[in-house]
């Protein structure tokens, strides 16, 4: 534990170096802006910031994206509560109680609860992240291919089942993602798979292109279909935040504890992110909370539950990313991309080889949380003015950042075709209600899944029971089976 | 008819999946006994994809015919692809705008090679904002000009991304602009 604290102290020193603290502050402002604007999602915002990191060192690059990720879970609360405009899907549950509380004449109080929930939930998760990461990394060091395959399999199963909507569509999206990952020259045999003689496809399809296209251009096309009709602010009145008193906080301690734990756990599960944490936490509160019958009428529990879970999911999602190289959410998938572009593969080895980098990231989460709240408290009135920008103009810049991001990754103009193609795919997916997240996660985890699967099969001489005869792999496979079967069982029971 | 419309996306994916499976069967590689080849993983994924599409088609057909009979309320079944048209609440879909927007995305990589980054970006931004229903031309031109020059300066001058210069006269213009902005 002493080592952890020493490393963390050094991490804070690194974060407070001029370059790092500067990019962190930029990340905080950008994260808040992205969260406030309804046309931009958190994941999209982190995608758009990626090209700026190409020429940075790895530490400031990851700090910038992490700061955006942290604040992205919080900024949209302002517009959701004050103007009934959820900047992010995460913020939708805040409309139910946050907006109601504001309508009742207590907007400052509602914002105060949001600030408290984001800060406290985020800090608890950050502490868990610091305490749990090294032990998890040590356990991960003992894993072999079957355990890693089972873990990836669990991540893929989770993204299919936790996303809501049609499970069949989610599976199709996932399999398409896995297929995308298998395009190109095979690493072992050197044969071409599904490249159709096209040079760009021979090199494989970079998952960043899939993400930038589907989340960035696809989302822009979906909004264009409605003629960019997002709401704008009539006028920005008095915006202030009133923090809850200690006795008020004590009254919601149960909701806070439940939601923070749920947020951390959902963050850890690969494939699930802040949006799922926010909705699920509100749902749990509405079913089991002390004031469950009053939910939706403007009670503090209805604000604390989704907000603390959403921000707590950040700390949770960083654990599988940093300890095993498996992203726990869309935003961490992009942070993984930033690592890989800098030639670093996150995983248990990084804790040994580059502890300074890992603990600087941990420290940046703490500093981001504090900075986020200070910005939210003092500067939000200026930031929400971005809602006055024309959506057509904002979207034009989003499109440009997508193109530059794709171009800058490999300096190859052909990569632009990849993002345009996946822009169309993203739009069609949205149109026909196929979730995008499973495809993206399939494209990211596909190479890992195939590699671990084939390695495990070679080691076990073709015996597929290897995934069920080792305790950790068996436990993960069983967990995956429950994850896959439970939603079907529940839907069958609900239908009677 | 409703059932067919709902099943169509699954059928389309299934046809593509079946073609790719057929391609996977044609992979040529040295066969090592007891060892899986490069075709194994794609075949597993494609097999599962085809199976899922089949489930989706059956589900769509059953749900569509139940609804046609009036035996099932729409909320009794999971969300299906064909539902989208009826369920959007934010006004009519404008597919013409999407087509124009997508056409601009397709043209941009081509324009980029010939016109260079600043001009191609300026044109894309102007046209995209017009397609996006903004009608304030002076504001569009100013935003696009500042956007194109600003992005060129930030990414070429500060982040050092190698942005396309264009060809012929356009290349000369890009280099002149770079010089004007005091970039290397």
Task: Give a quick set of tags describing it.
heterodimer, A: 496 residues, mainly alpha, two-stranded antiparallel ribbon, 24 helices, globular, B: 184 residues
Low-confidence stretches of chain A: none
The tally of beta strands of chain B, per DSSP, is 0
The 3D shape of chain B can be described as: flat
Mean pLDDT of chain B, as a whole number? 84
Judging from the principal axes of the Cα atoms, what is the shape of chain A? globular
| N-C termini distance of chain B | 63 Å
| % residues in beta strands of chain B | under 5%
Distance between the termini of chain A: 52 Å
Tell me the major beta sheet of chain B: none
Helix content of chain B: over 70%
Instruction: Report the mean per-residue pLDDT of chain A as an integer.
Output: 85
Q: What's the count of strands of chain A?
A: 2
Walk me through what this model shows.
The complex is a heterodimer of chains A (about 500) and B (about 180). Chain A has about 500 residues and is mostly helical. In chain A, about 75% of the residues lie in helices and about 0% in strands. Chain A has helices spanning about 1-15, 20-35, 40-55, 60-70, 75-85, 90-105, 105-140, 145-160, 165-180, 200, 205-225, 245-250, 255-270, 275-290, 300-325, 330-340, 350-355, 355-380, 380-385, 390-410, 415-430, 435-460, 465-470, 470-495; strands spanning about 185, 190-195. A two-stranded antiparallel ribbon of chain A has the order 1-2. In chain A, a hairpin with a 6-residue loop joins strand 1 (about 185) and strand 2 (about 190-195). In chain A, helix 1 (about 1-15) crosses helix 18 (about 355-380). The longest helix of chain A is centred in the first third of the chain and has 35 residues, at about 105-140. Chain A is globular, with a radius of gyration of 22 Å. Chain A starts with a helix and ends with a helix. The mean pLDDT of chain A is about 85. Chain B has about 180 residues and is an all-alpha fold. In chain B, helix 1 (about 1-25) packs antiparallel against helix 2 and helix 5 (about 115-130) runs antiparallel to helix 6. The model of chain B is unreliable at about 70-90 (pLDDT under 50). At the A-B interface, helix 9, helix 11, helix 20, helix 21 and helix 22 of A face helix 1, helix 2, helix 4, helix 5 and helix 6 of B.
């Amino acid at each position: 534990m002493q080592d952890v604290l020493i490393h963390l102290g050094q991490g804070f020193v690194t974060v407070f170096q001029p370059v790092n603290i500067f990019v962190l502050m930029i990340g905080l402002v950008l994260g808040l802006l992205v969260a406030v604007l309804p046309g931009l999602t958190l994941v999209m915002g982190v995608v758009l910031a990626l090209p700026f990191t190409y020429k940075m060192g790895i530490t400031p690059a990851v700090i910038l994206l992490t700061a955006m990720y942290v604040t992205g879970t919080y900024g949209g609360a302002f517009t959701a509560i004050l103007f009934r405009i959820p900047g992010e899907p995460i913020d939708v549950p805040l409309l139910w109680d946050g907006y109601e509380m504001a309508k009742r004449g207590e907007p400052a109080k509602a914002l105060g609860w949001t600030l408290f929930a984001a800060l406290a939930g985020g800090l608890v998760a950050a502490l868990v992240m610091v305490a749990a990461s090294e032990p998890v990394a040590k356990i991960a060091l003992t894993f072999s291919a079957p355990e890693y395959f089972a873990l990836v399999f669990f991540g893929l199963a989770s993204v299919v089942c936790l996303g809501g909507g049609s499970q069949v569509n989610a599976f199709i999206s996932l399999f398409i993602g896995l297929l995308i990952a298998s395009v190109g020259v095979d690493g072992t045999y050197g044969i071409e798979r599904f490249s159709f003689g096209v040079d760009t496809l021979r090199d494989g399809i970079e998952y960043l292109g899939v993400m930038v296209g589907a989340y960035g251009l696809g989302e822009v096309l979906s909004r264009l279909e409605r003629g960019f009709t997002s709401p704008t602010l009539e006028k920005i009145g008095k915006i202030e935040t009133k923090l809850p008193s200690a006795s008020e906080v004590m009254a919601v301690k149960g909701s806070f504890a439940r939601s923070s734990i749920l947020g951390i756990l959902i963050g850890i599960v690969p494939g699930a992110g802040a949006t799922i944490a926010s909705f699920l936490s509100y749902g749990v509160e509405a079913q089991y909370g002390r004031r469950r019958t009053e939910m939706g009428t403007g009670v503090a529990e209805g604000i604390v539950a989704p907000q603390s879970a959403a921000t707590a999911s950040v700390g949770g999602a960083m654990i599988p990313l940093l300890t095993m190289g498996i992203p726990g959410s869309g935003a961490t998938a992009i942070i993984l991309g930033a690592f890989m572009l800098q030639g670093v593969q996150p995983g248990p080895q990084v804790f040994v080889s580059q502890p300074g980098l890992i603990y600087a990231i941990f420290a940046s989460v703490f500093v981001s949380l504090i900075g986020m709240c200070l910005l939210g408290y003092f500067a939000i009135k200026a930031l929400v003015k971005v809602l006055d920008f024309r959506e057509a103009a904002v979207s034009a810049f989003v499109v440009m950042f997508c193109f530059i991001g794709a171009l800058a990754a490999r300096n190859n103009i052909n990569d632009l075709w990849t993002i345009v193609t996946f822009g169309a795919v993203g739009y069609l997916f949205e149109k026909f209600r196929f979730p995008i997240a499973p495809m993206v996660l399939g494209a990211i985890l596909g190479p890992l899944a195939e590699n671990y699967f084939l390695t495990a099969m070679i080691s076990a001489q073709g015996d597929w029971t290897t995934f069920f005869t080792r305790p950790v792999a068996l436990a993960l496979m069983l967990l995956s089976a429950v994850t896959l079967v439970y939603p079907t069982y529940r839907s069958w029971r609900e239908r009677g | 008819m409703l059932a067919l419309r709902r099943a169509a996306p699954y059928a389309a994916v299934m046809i593509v999946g079946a073609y790719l499976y057929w391609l996977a069967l044609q992979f040529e590689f040295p066969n090592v006994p007891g060892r899986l080849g490069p075709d194994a993983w794609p075949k597993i994924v494609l097999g599962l994809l085809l199976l899922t599409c089949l489930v989706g088609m059956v589900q769509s057909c059953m749900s569509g015919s139940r609804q046609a009979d009036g035996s099932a309320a729409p909320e009794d079944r999971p969300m299906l692809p064909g539902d989208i048209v009826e369920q959007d609440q934010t006004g009519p879909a404008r597919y013409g705008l999407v087509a124009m927007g997508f056409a601009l995305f397709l043209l941009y990589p081509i324009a980029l090679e010939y016109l260079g980054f600043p001009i191609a970006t300026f044109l894309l931004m102007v046209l995209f904002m017009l397609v996006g229903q903004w009608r304030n031309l002076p504001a569009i031109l100013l935003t696009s000009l500042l956007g194109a020059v600003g992005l060129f300066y930030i990414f070429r001058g500060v982040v050092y991304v190698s942005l396309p210069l264009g060809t012929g006269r356009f290349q000369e213009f890009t280099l002149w602009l770079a010089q004007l902005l005091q970039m290397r």
